[in-house]
Design brief:
With 276 residues, this protein is an alpha/beta fold. The protein is built from ten helices and ten strands. It has a seven-stranded mixed β-sheet with strand order 5-6-7-3-8-9-10, with helices on both faces. A three-stranded antiparallel β-sheet has the order 2-1-4, with helices on one face. Strand 6 (184-188), helix 8 (196-213) and strand 7 form a beta-alpha-beta unit. The chain starts with a helix and ends in a 6-residue tail after the last helix. It binds adenosine-5'-diphosphate (ADP) and magnesium ion (MG).
Length: 276
């Protein structure tokens, strides 16, 4: 009886607390000698559109891998919904499907159709023998078709993934993540290689979906302008350290750690290409 009450209290507290990701003084290393992330402390509220910006090699992808438990910190604490992310820990397994992770490579299966790539997102819910023989239940097929429409690919369901354009591939990766019914989307430089128009289309799709499904989004960008245009909050990573974190409201920078700078000055300072 007491335990049930505690359990209920835990889930209620999760419903009402703002914070979904917490990192306290996190250090990470691939060789236990050199730290690629140092002293990272950050807090991400539910429903926020959070961007991580930094140059190549600054540690952005490593940061995402700490959130989904692909990697463990050498020091410090990482929490996702009050639990410690760890992909190999059975206790964290149910949480994993709540994290829609899109790696920079997208991770699509090239020779498989768009629809089947999307259905992969439902695998954690499906009997493994059935999924091996691609016997997806009718309700999952319907869900996949609904999401296919949502990302605007209803006429490409049977096309093989390798035959798609860059923008379409990203739509499939987004759809696969949505098929998981996630609470949070983690996207690693999802628009970096796209032309400006397609990049904005993909970002608009993510923003709309995020709003409609009440998701939290954590997106890695190397372009400060893209982050400022779409995010509520932007963290800048340099050589493994968080050197700046700003809040964005429209064209206004709010809640600013490092003094009085305009959005224009921030863009110039932290963009890869300051002239643009
Ligand atoms: N699997 C790995 N093994 C060893 N070093 C790695 C590995 N992945 C990344 N690194 C190193 O960690 C640092 C941060 O990498 P990463 O997080 O991928 O940066 P970013 O995503 O900002 O480009 C870089 O110096 C990179 O070379
Ligand atoms: Mg990266």
């Amino acid at each position: 009886m007491k335990q049930t009450m505690i359990k209920q209290f835990n889930s209620l507290s999760q419903l009402f607390t703002k914070n979904i990701i917490q990192m306290n003084d996190v250090w990470a290393s691939y060789d236990s000698k050199n730290y690629v992330l140092k002293e990272i402390t950050l807090s991400i509220d539910r429903g926020v559109n959070y961007a991580i910006v930094g140059q190549s090699g600054s540690g952005k992808s490593t940061l995402l891998k700490l959130i989904n438990g692909m990697m463990l910190p050498s020091k410090g604490v990482v929490k996702f919904d009050y639990q410690t992310p760890n992909m190999t820990d059975k206790k964290f397994k149910p949480m994993l499907s709540k994290i829609g992770y899109i790696p920079q490579s997208l991770g699509l299966i090239k020779n498989v159709s768009v629809l089947e790539n999307i259905l992969i997102g439902s695998l954690p819910r499906i009997n493994s023998i059935k999924s091996l023989f691609k016997m997806f239940p009718e309700n999952e097929l319907q869900e996949a078709e609904r999401i296919l429409k949502l990302v605007g690919l209803e006429d490409k369901a049977s096309r093989k993934a390798y035959m798609l354009s860059g923008g379409e591939k990203r739509r499939v990766a987004i759809a696969r993540a949505l098929m998981q019914k996630p609470d949070i989307l983690l996207a690693d430089e999802i628009v970096s290689e796209l032309d400006h128009v397609t990049a904005n289309e993909i970002m608009d799709l993510i923003s709309d979906t995020k709003r409609r499904l009440n998701l939290t989004a954590v997106m890695v960008h190397h372009d400060m302008r893209m982050a400022l245009e779409y995010a509520d909050r932007v963290a800048v990573i340099k050589e493994g350290q968080k050197i700046l974190e700003i809040g964005v409201e429209g064209s206004k920078i709010v809640d600013f750690q490092t003094g009085n700078m305009t959005q224009q000055e921030i863009t110039e300072l932290y963009s890869d290409d300051p002239k643009k």
